[in-house]
Write a structure and sequence with these properties.
alpha+beta; Alpha-Beta Plaits; 3 helices; globular
């Protein structure tokens, strides 16, 4: 199954909170891409929100993958199961 994982930063999150974790976040996203879990990552131009397309067998598995990201503790997350309307 594919999911759109949408996130926004929680109120009060600052650049000082985020910046030290960015290298670890990038490394973890790379691992999840290599495992085929993260298919796409999009960030708003102001970096206030973002979207992942993830492939997992269940929403619980998506939550687990999302929670493994170092910055996730600063996010409000919404998961939506998506249907691929493009033929293979």
């Amino acid at each position: 199954m594919r999911f759109m994982v949408s996130f926004v930063y929680k109120d009060g999150t600052t650049g000082e909170d985020i910046q030290p974790l960015v290298p670890d976040e990038q490394a973890r996203v790379k691992e999840l891409r290599e495992q085929g879990i993260v298919e796409e990552l999009f960030l708003a131009s102001d970096r206030s929100r973002g979207w992942f397309v993830m492939r997992r067998e269940s929403e619980d598995a998506v939550r687990e993958a999302t929670a493994s990201l170092p910055l996730s503790r600063f996010w409000e997350v919404t998961n939506t199961s998506i249907f691929d309307a493009q033929p293979a």
